[in-house]
Amino acid sequence: MQSALANLGASLTSTDFWLGLGWMLFKIVMILVVGKIVMKLWRLMVVRVISHRTMRMDERRGKTIVSLLLNVMRYVVYFLVLLTILSNIGLDVSTLLAGAGVAGLAIGFGAQSLVKDVITGFFIIFEDQFGVGDNVMINTNLQIRGNVAEVGLRITKVRAYTGEIHIIPNSQIRQVTNFSKSNSLAVVDVSVAFEEDLQHVYEVLKQVGLEVQAENENVLGEPQVLGVQMIGPSVVVVRMTMECKPMEHFGVGRFLRYKIKEAFEREGIEIPYPKQVALFPGQPSAEEKQAAAGS
């Protein structure tokens, strides 16, 4: 015991020991710095290559490919950096790799879900089911709705409207509804009174739709006044539609309703709303007042 302590003390006071330790730490730091530089250079190269090909692929898919390539390269660089550090501190990397192969075979049976995640992620990207920036709903039973923030080989991140980030393993993605694949349709139902001339209502709605089309760049097609959608107890509901850019139908619909209300007020078209008539005991009714006025 005393000899071991003596050897340790001699090592700690040895100049060669501290020089060797310092050189080892310096090499580890340099390995980490080189790994960081490689990642930055890889990012710049990937972004530049993808940006030069934006004419042949849409921006959404380009962002998805960039995200995927950066994730793959990150794992590769981290693995190589770890092996280099272990080699520099004196560990036999070949022995570790051989042991890792045996351990990996055993772990593989318990990592089937990880393999499923990677395979599913590959097909999601290869088939272009959805990409970064798309508005999607994943798995109807889970009702996960939002914009895709990241698509990786193992997980997909979806940002909800209220800011939450849903992290979903790719193997759990069973059904995807992509709202950004094609143009949207703004559907607006307008209620008018029974007494209104429907032909006049149609003309006003058509004119309002043309004005909205001219003012709003998100509108792609001419307005369509489809006609009477429903007859209620006290209203006639008229439906009109407008084709818009993907996911712009909410804003176009709100703007269209605003313009319709302005036009109806200007044209004197009544929008029915609930009314209440209060009768107090002892007061004559409207019929009695009319009869009294006539006499």
TrEMBL record:
<feature type="transmembrane region" description="Helical">
    <location>
        <begin position="65"/>
        <end position="87"/>
    </location>
</feature>
<comment type="similarity">
    <text>Belongs to the MscS (TC 1.A.23) family.</text>
</comment>
<dbReference type="InterPro" id="IPR011066">
    <property type="entry name" value="MscS_channel_C_sf"/>
</dbReference>
<dbReference type="InterPro" id="IPR023408">
    <property type="entry name" value="MscS_beta-dom_sf"/>
</dbReference>
<dbReference type="InterPro" id="IPR049142">
    <property type="entry name" value="MS_channel_1st"/>
</dbReference>
<dbReference type="InterPro" id="IPR045276">
    <property type="entry name" value="YbiO_bact"/>
</dbReference>
<feature type="domain" description="Mechanosensitive ion channel transmembrane helices 2/3">
    <location>
        <begin position="72"/>
        <end position="112"/>
    </location>
</feature>
<dbReference type="Pfam" id="PF21088">
    <property type="entry name" value="MS_channel_1st"/>
</dbReference>
<dbReference type="Pfam" id="PF21082">
    <property type="entry name" value="MS_channel_3rd"/>
</dbReference>
<dbReference type="GO" id="GO:0005886">
    <property type="term" value="C:plasma membrane"/>
</dbReference>
<dbReference type="GO" id="GO:0008381">
    <property type="term" value="F:mechanosensitive monoatomic ion channel activity"/>
</dbReference>
<feature type="transmembrane region" description="Helical">
    <location>
        <begin position="93"/>
        <end position="115"/>
    </location>
</feature>
<feature type="transmembrane region" description="Helical">
    <location>
        <begin position="20"/>
        <end position="44"/>
    </location>
</feature>
<keyword id="KW-0472">Membrane</keyword>
<feature type="domain" description="Mechanosensitive ion channel MscS C-terminal">
    <location>
        <begin position="187"/>
        <end position="271"/>
    </location>
</feature>
<dbReference type="InterPro" id="IPR049278">
    <property type="entry name" value="MS_channel_C"/>
</dbReference>
<dbReference type="InterPro" id="IPR006685">
    <property type="entry name" value="MscS_channel_2nd"/>
</dbReference>
<dbReference type="InterPro" id="IPR010920">
    <property type="entry name" value="LSM_dom_sf"/>
</dbReference>
<feature type="domain" description="Mechanosensitive ion channel MscS">
    <location>
        <begin position="114"/>
        <end position="181"/>
    </location>
</feature>
<dbReference type="InterPro" id="IPR011014">
    <property type="entry name" value="MscS_channel_TM-2"/>
</dbReference>
<keyword id="KW-1003">Cell membrane</keyword>
<keyword id="KW-1133">Transmembrane helix</keyword>
<keyword id="KW-0812">Transmembrane</keyword>
<dbReference type="Pfam" id="PF00924">
    <property type="entry name" value="MS_channel_2nd"/>
</dbReference>
<protein>
    <recommendedName>
        <fullName>Mechanosensitive ion channel protein MscS</fullName>
    </recommendedName>
</protein>
